[in-house]
Amino acid sequence: MATAQPALVVLAAGMGSRYGGLKQLDAVGPDGEILMDYSVYDAINAGFSEIIFIIREEFEDAFKALMAPKLDGRVDWCCVFQDADDLPEGYKRPEGRERPWGTGHAVLAARDVIKGPFAVINADDYYGKESYRLMFNFLSSMKDNDDKPLYGMCTWRLRRTLSKYGEVSRGVLSLDDQGRFAGIKEIKKIEQADHGGRYSTDGGTTWIHLDGDRLVSMNFWGFPLSFMDLLREGFPIFLERDEIQYDMRTEYLLPEIVGDAFVGGRIDVRLMPVSDRWFGVTFKEDKERVSNALSKLAEEGKYPRPLFDI
């Protein structure tokens, strides 16, 4: 028997340090829409009826004022707060630690409101209509009583996810001989290069090239409710790492959590390649390109204008 209706969890607590402002609330659409509006619109049309936003408490009022006119009466929605002091009993935030603890910690912030299978997305990415249909269908047929739970991941080709304006982080996938998921590695500071991307681990003295057709995760996940137990179990282990006390950027990240669980034989992962275009606003210079792409989609009739009739 199928489980409860899938929910969508939107990670919107990041302040966009490289971008220079609260990019999640920055208008990019032809009628003042933000990227998150398109995610919500596509998710609702794919069948999602509940949306949980992970935000920082300090911009709750601005966030709700912006989203309430668009969502009230269309979908059930709520906000929960990611807080760096939200830690298991017996743990304290290290002195000097200001930033939250990453995407795994962000999902944990919703532990009291997630009641069934759920998808997770970034607030500042455009994933396309196809990805939400694929994920909703996957979650709708999910069962959560297997010995080895099945997680879902939408994937894109690396070349279609890079920015010409700077370095990005990507969850780069490894596949087995049958093209199935075999692992994921979070690689930071990937820049565009001929036929794909490249990154360096020694300050640019040597470079490691990545083929542009490599599949990558853009943080669009599908999980059973039992994933919350895995997050709770793993977070104290993460907090015991030595680098927590001196590296204030160390984060509890979904790609690492999923990858470790897979290597440990605890889960399987289904890959869902998406043909729709992905784009996002990582740097300020990306905004014009994204705005032009969204205007073109509206001109082609793929989205109404305005997106929400307020």
Describe this structure as you would to a colleague.
The chain is built from 7 helices and 13 strands. It is α/β, with parallel strands linked by helices and 310 residues long. Strands 1, 2, 3, 4, 6, 7, 8, 9, 10, 11 and 12 form an 11-stranded mixed β-sheet that branches. Helix 1 (35-46) links the parallel strand 1 (7-11) and strand 2 (50-55). The radius of gyration is 19 Å and the shape is globular. Residues 15-21 have low confidence and may be disordered.
User: What is the fourth-level CATH superfamily?
Assistant: Spore Coat Polysaccharide Biosynthesis Protein SpsA, Chain A
**Secondary-structure element order, N to C:** EHEHEHEEHEEEEEEHHEEH
SS field, number of helical segments: 7
| Main beta-sheet annotation | 11 strands, mixed
Distance between the termini: 38 Å
Can you give the helix content as a percent range? 25-40%
Question: What is the molecular shape?
Answer: globular
Element layout with pairings:
Blueprint: E1 7-11, H1 35-46, E2 50-55, H2 60-71, E3 76-81, H3 103-108, E4 118-122, E5 125-126, H4 129-140, E6 150-157, E7 168-175, E8 181-193, E9 196-199, E10 208-211, E11 215-223, H5 227-239, H6 254-263, E12 268-273, E13 279-280, H7 286-299
Parallel strand pairs: 1-2, 1-4, 2-3, 6-12
Antiparallel strand pairs: 4-11, 5-13, 6-11, 7-8, 7-11, 8-9, 9-10
Task: Summarize the entry for a quick read.
This protein is of the alpha/beta class.
Characteristic key phrases:
310 residues; alpha/beta; Spore Coat Polysaccharide Biosynthesis Protein SpsA, Chain A; two-stranded antiparallel ribbon; 25% helix; globular
